[in-house]
Amino acid sequence: QVQLVESGGGLVQPGGSLRLSCAASGSIFSINHMGWYRQVPGMQRLLVAAITSSGSTNYGDSVKGRFTISRDNAKNTVFLQMNSLKPEDTAVYYCNADLTRSYYSGREHYWGQGTQVTVSS
Asked: Which among 69, 74, 101, 110 could bridge 49 via Cys, Cβ 3.0 to 4.6 Å?
């Protein structure tokens, strides 16, 4: 069994910063991509940022230049540093991992439980 546990969400004023963390644990052989998505009520879940095991990154257009994704492969953890936050960044943020559980198994996708980020004065 695999679990993704997120932390670091909360309430912040516009222009402020937050850092999200997501730790993967359980029966894991290797993790390929890790990423962050966000969702507001009534809308689909959208990519915020993703990072490969070698460190290549991809960002959603609305967060480029403000958010930075990074990972610690030794600890199976991914981070999202969010700067210059705007009210429109308010959403539930979900961690995602694309991983394999053994040498012989296929790739599987897992999601965290989500963490609320609210940007408001």
From this structure: 69
| Separation of alpha carbons 95 and 49, rounded Å | 10
pLDDT (0 to 100) of residue 98 = 96
* Closest to 28 in 3D by CA, of 70, 75, 79: 75
Instruction: Judge contact between 9 and 117, C-beta under 8 A.
Output: yes
State the alpha helices, DSSP H only, in the chain. Answer: none
- Res. 7 pLDDT band, cuts 50 70 90: very high
Q: If we measure between CA atoms, which residue out of 36, 51, 35, 48 comes closest to residue 88?
A: 48
Strands (E), the chain: 2-7, 10-12, 18-26, 30-39, 46-51, 57-59, 67-72, 77-82, 91-100, 107-111, 115-119
> Which long-range contacts (C-beta less than 8 Å, at least 24 apart) are formed by 69-76?
69/35, 69/36, 71/34, 73/31, 75/23, 76/23, 76/24, 76/25, 76/28, 76/31
